[in-house]
Specification:
With 407 residues, this protein is of the alpha+beta class. It folds into 3 domains: 8-125, Acyl-CoA dehydrogenase/oxidase, N-terminal domain (Butyryl-Coa Dehydrogenase, subunit A, domain 1, Orthogonal Bundle), CATH 1.10.540.10; 129-231, Butyryl-CoA Dehydrogenase, subunit A, domain 2; 240-397, Up-down Bundle (Butyryl-CoA Dehydrogenase, subunit A, domain 3), CATH 1.20.140.10. It has 10 helices and 8 strands. The protein has helices spanning 22-40, 46-54, 73-87, 89-106, 111-121, 240-267, 284-319, 325-352, 369-379, 384-397; strands at residues 126-129, 146-150, 153-160, 171-177, 183-189, 195-198, 213-221, 226-228. A 4-stranded mixed beta sheet has the order 1-4-5-8, with helices on one face. Strand 4 (171-177) and strand 5 form a beta hairpin. Helix 7 (284-319) runs antiparallel to helix 8 (325-352).
Length: 407
């Protein structure tokens, strides 16, 4: 039934990559080196995720005394920035795992999480089965996936969509409903019978994230791997972590756009006969455009790290057992404000990049279209206009921000 080896926690491997270390910089550089081939479809993300496993990046937020990287929450978002600059697919793949670890760290007093965090410490990766098609209210937690009793165990049946990264992971936490109407989270192994992870994602961007379909057909689930969600640890604005993570991906892509702009201008030797300067690097119009792109990347990075610092402070209160709801709301506001501006700024920048490169920038071999495609795909996870409206309603009328999924 996809059981977890109880000896995993006794066999922790040392050497988890540390924040700011040379090993971490080497890992990010390796992600960047393989990005062009992956984007062209000449390679997939499996090798990259193998490097992630070898570096034990999955325990980046686990305390150092427990074999983890000991990173703070802001340091995690700094890592996401670096990885997204290198190849935004890789940190996107890891989002559900990092979100799971964040929950498990503050809920390990509950038996399922205590069991699952040991598996994380042993180097395994967790995905998520949450989104379903056909539900009227997206993000309300309801769905058609069922967990039925079967003797001492349970049986899971249902279909989940947008299941980013499950193809590369070891375990999936699946949201389901029992016959008596209780909402649950059930852990299953990706490799056990009845689990079908399909690489059928056909998005215009984030092509290597395997954000496709996961089908569960009569999958056996152990009783100890079922969590009644009513008993789960709850915090206000629980979706802020994942939402800010997505905006941080976009900020990382903006960094790459700014660097690509410099490379395009310095790599050009010709200019138009009616340009301001013969040498592109001396052309004040191109200099201005590059300066605007550099500024956009800086503002985006500053905004997401500012929100991450507040979210880190909020999570620290939760880990201490006394969640500060005001801090969580402030973090949600900052994350939402960052998204509203950064999404638009990034899409504009991805287009402006072509203004500094000339016609050759539009070739397939340059692959510069990937920035716009990836930004547009990530930004579409939750339309910014709904966040802007909620922020405006809060500012004008004092209406609380949405506090559940997708905000």
């Amino acid at each position: 039934m996809g059981t977890i080896d109880s000896t995993l926690a006794e066999n922790l491997r040392p050497g988890a990559v540390q924040p700011g270390s040379a090993a971490l910089r080497e890992l990010v550089a390796a992600m960047a080196a393989g990005a062009p081939a992956r984007d062209r479809g000449e390679a997939d993300a499996r090798d990259a995720i193998a490097r992630v496993r070898a570096a034990r990046l999955g325990v980046f937020r686990v305390p150092g005394a427990e074999g983890g990287g000991g990173a703070t929450l802001p340091q995690l978002y700094e890592l996401v920035l670096d990885l997204a600059e290198a190849d935004s697919n890789i940190p996107h793949i890891l989002r559900n795992h990092f979100a799971f670890v964040e929950k498990a760290l503050r809920a390990r007093h509950l038996p399922p999480y205590r069991r699952w965090i040991e598996v994380v410490q042993a180097g395994e990766l967790f995905g998520l089965g949450a989104s379903e098609l056909g539900t009227q209210n997206v993000g309300d937690g309801d769905g058609r996936t069922r967990l039925e009793p079967a003797g001492r165990a349970w049986r899971l049946t249902g279909t989940k969509y947008y299941s980013t990264g499950n193809l590369y992971f070891d375990h999936v936490i699946v949201n389901a409903k029992t016959p008596d109407g209780r909402l649950v989270g059930a852990r299953v192994s990706v490799r056990q019978p009845g689990v079908d992870v399909r690489d059928d994602w056909d998005g215009i961007g984030q092509r290597q994230t395997a954000s496709g379909t996961t089908v569960f057909t009569n999958v056996e689930v152990a009783p100890e791997d079922v969590l009644i969600l009513a008993d789960d640890v709850k915090i206000g604005h629980s979706a802020t972590f994942a939402q800010l993570y997505l905006t941080t991906l976009i900020a990382g892509i903006l960094r790459r756009i700014a660097k690509d702009a410099v490379a395009l201008v310095t790599g050009r030797t010709r200019n138009y006969y009616h340009a301001v300067a013969a040498r592109p690097a001396d052309d004040p119009l191109l200099q201005q455009a590059v300066g605007e792109l550099q500024s956009a990347a800086y503002v985006a990075e500053a905004a997401v790290l500012n929100a991450a610092a507040t979210l880190g402070d909020a999570f620290d209160t939760a880990l201490a057992g006394e969640p500060d709801n005001a801090l969580f709301e402030e973090a949600a506001q900052r994350a939402a404000k960052a998204k509203v501006v950064i999404d638009r700024l990034a899409l504009q920048s991805a287009t402006q990049l072509f203004d500094v490169g000339g016609a050759s920038a539009a070739t397939q071999r340059a692959q510069l279209d990937r920035h716009w495609r990836n930004i547009r795909t990530i930004a579409s996870h939750n339309p910014g206009l709904y966040k802007a409206r909620a922020l405006g309603n809060h500012a004008i009328n004092g209406v609380p921000l949405p506090s559940a999924a997708f905000f």
